[in-house]
Amino acid sequence: MNNSMDNAINPKNSIEIRKLIDTNNTIYTRNDILFALVMLVCGFLYMNLIRLPGLGAGVTLFAAIFCLSTFIYLKSGVIHQTRTSLLFFVVIVLSALVFLLFDNMLIKGLNFLFLMAAVIYWISLSTGRTLEKRISVYILGDFFHQVLVIPFSNFACCFSAVRTLIAGNKKGRSLLAGTVGIFVMIPVLAAVINLLIKADAAFAGVIANLHFSVSIDILFQIILGIPVACYLYGLIYGNRYGRNTGFVTVELVDKMAAAFRFAPGVTVYSALTALNLVFIVFFLSQITYLFSAFHNQLPELMTHAEYARRGFFELCAVAGINLAVITTAHLIVKREKVRVLQIETTALSLFTLMLIITAISKMVMYINTYGLTQLRVYTTWFMVVLFLIFAVIAVRQFKKFNATRVILVGFVVFFLIMSYGNVDGRIAAYNIDRYMNGTLESLDVKDLSGLSDAAVPYMYNLYLDTENQSLKTELKAAIEKTPGSENMIPHQKTFRDFNFQSHAAQTIRNLL
Fold it and tell me: What is the pLDDT of residue 455?
């Protein structure tokens, strides 16, 4: 084997190298073997550092270790980062820091999924294994390929790399066999020991002194981390060497898409025309009701809450139906009279945009009357994202541009804005400011107590400023979130759950 195999491999030579590897039943370089060991450590750290529902500094630490290891491994193969891959790497850094800085559990949960998707796509961009060299609609095929095909088709490579390290050493083989035997018996040992603990108090005391439960937890984390390591190594190793990366291609995706185009154009266009006519009649018949929010007026016999909620659910249902209809129409229609399809799609998108604008105006009216809540913030954000999607769809019908890239970049920007927007802190600050200046009739402390620790500093400032003793008592209970509190949030106990907002809130609780 020549010396180039000891270094990282250039993707431009991937076809030649892949043949060489396949012929020799997969040869692993020193870098490959070392990276396999690093991924085994990362698999353990994944199970050890990432704890639900905490999702704190442990996630940030794991992301830093994993991404740095991957970056070094790919760079050792003369795989240079492109401008796009570096941009995605910046997105990963920003996403990972959210867990260290903020405390909102919903946003951190969504951000965890976002972070995993960003990491997978960054790896495919770095190694040049995307179906197209640019961000396009083929990104859907990329994610299927990268999330399922490549990692699982190379799942055993991590074991093979480690086995290569000890295959030529008799003691190494014996050690490996013994280790496998111990890992296989761990579940049995844990079950037996737990039963003996319950059966005998003296034995339970001995085990407690040995801190056996902690050891068992670590062993289980090691066991569960092994498949995680195999998945990660299979993904990265497969992308680096182009191993089992040819299952999904542009031609295959196009062929599958063409197979769905079975509906005659007249059938699809007639259906779209009928739906657009329904929307025309709907808007004409409901014009006073739908647009009354622009004049800050309510329809008769309706409250602000009823008006805003009804508008939102109308939006969700209509937008969901319209997205499904547009997607299905473009997927199944035979490519004839494309101009008609463009007109129908534009009309449907414009109707949806009108309803989104109306719904946002309703939500603004609702917020002006009752203040902010998490649900109101999230639904407004969702409306804005929908507006972007339908606006891009409408413009794309008559002007050629990379619509997928615009939607993807727009979504990433909006998601990061929400992640770094300190939603719970802004909600508390907004409602308290309006209560103090008299534009909000009452302050719902119960709602504030349901927010994350991001709201605590704002409640504490009000606690210090107000002379209303009843309000002080409510605020103190909300800040402390005592065991009797309805929305108690457990205090963070380890560095894995640490974030700066919770740390600041705990400092305030200690002052109280």
Answer: 94
